[in-house]
Amino acid sequence: MSAVWMVKVVGLGLVALSLSVELLGWLGRRLRPRKIRNEVLFFPSELACVENILNPTSPYTCLCPFPHGVETSFSRLLRILLSASSTLDLCVFAFSNMDLCRAVLVLHNKGVIMRVLTDKDYAAISGSQIGVLRKAGICVRSDRGSRGSMYMHHKFAVIDGRLLITGSLNWTLQAVQANMENIVVTEEPDLLRPFTKEFNRLWVCNDPAQHHRPLESLTEEL
Prior knowledge:
The chain is 41% helix and 17% strand. By secondary structure, it is an alpha/beta fold. Strands 1-7-6-5-2-3-4 form a seven-stranded mixed sheet, sandwiched between helices. It is built from eight helices and seven strands.
């Protein structure tokens, strides 16, 4: 065997070895269990500008007096919320925080499919953003008041059917800036499933069509 032929064989062997190592590395990465996301956020949040999160393509520089480029619990919550790409199921007792409302509207304008459940009484209080969501064309349902004085007191969201946000935090300015609150963000399937089931149950229970009698039946009684 000539020296040239030997060099070619060794070269091909080295190439094959390199490709095998790369293939094994790729398979290892693919087969390695993906780390499940778990995160905890505490409030009140530091005051900081979030304009770059809500409007990242704006050519204008925000001149507000709050610190810029600072990561806070609230800015982290906004980023997680804005990570939705297909669906958002939102179940909140009180919703008056305008920045969270802006984030929801951003997702709506991107074509994310949304369902919002809220408390009937608190949807009507001054400052509530529920009317803004409805005006934008987002489907909102509120509890039907069939449980007497019982509130729809949940505070959770399911993003893309894979990520759960839940905790004590109401979606209000008071809760974000002045209350001691918490939020858990998780992809744990065993936690996600019951919240998804509960949302779907409440969504069906609070379908307005189930609580309005057909016009024909009213006419017959008259």
